[in-house]
Amino acid sequence: MLSILLHLPFFMHPPQVVPANGNGALSPFLFALPELPDVIVMVLYHVIVLLQAFRLNYMLNELRMLQKQALTTAMCYVLFTSLFEQWNHITPALLCNSLIIWLFHKMTQLKSSSQSRSIIYNIGFIAGTAVLLYHPSMTIILVCFVAIAILRPFQLNEWFILLIGILTPFYFLLFVLFLRNDLNSIWLYIPEWGTPFRLPPDLRPVVATLIALAVVLLAGIYSWRANASRMLIQVRKEWAVLLFMLLALIPAMFISKDAGYEAGLLSMVPGAALASHIFLNPRRTWLPNIFFWTLAALSIYNNWK
Length: 305
What we know:
Layout (H helix, E strand, L loop, with lengths): L1 H5 L19 H7 L5 H25 L9 H9 L11 H17 L7 H18 L6 H12 L4 H24 L23 H25 L5 H17 L2 H4 L12 H13 L5 H19 L1
Helix pairs in contact: 3-4, 3-5, 4-12, 5-6, 6-7, 6-8, 7-8, 7-10, 9-12, 9-13, 10-12
């Protein structure tokens, strides 16, 4: 219901399938899709966002990373992903968020697994696949190395296993291109560093939304830190990984070539998880209400105008 209400402007401006030209292997796939009716695209968008939101929320509850069972993470994810018009389309960034959620779930399995090496390889493989499919996600590779450093005792061979996993998707791609006698195309699948970020013509609503979003994220991080002493050490480490993931993914829309605003969606996975604390453990109930309604109003305004 929340997703439908936040996306009421869809009835006037339906979502579209928007490939990110030159930003990874997902773009040619989206270009090749036949044109779909507006209703189908609208339903697909809601299904993708809700599946990601509930998967992220279920994972945090299953891992007991939250102090009580709640749907606040799913609520934050649906709310955050609706904030900008560029985020309200089916894009490679939106699809890549499923890989980021899966990647973090794999990271949490390192704490007690007897098969840590295979999990580390899978972490690298998922990260490499994400970068291959959508280039602005390349900072997730740094997150993988930091996560291994936080969650595991240092073992150099595990870092090499992670690196091999990251390179594996590119090895398979190279093999396919070799069979097709098209090795020169490999450069189309290598991430490029960015060009100057293109500012929107009207900055005021964008700045207002970014400020409101930043305040909610900072409030969520503060609430998490205030309750961190009650958490298990391993849980605190997992939250530290999420915080670093947020900090690493925010610059994605600035440092990757032609990334644009849609790349900011990548940071909403850890952002929704961290912000959920302000709605889960409020000291003053009026504060999360103000945060929610402010973001909801900005979402509707940004997508209606």
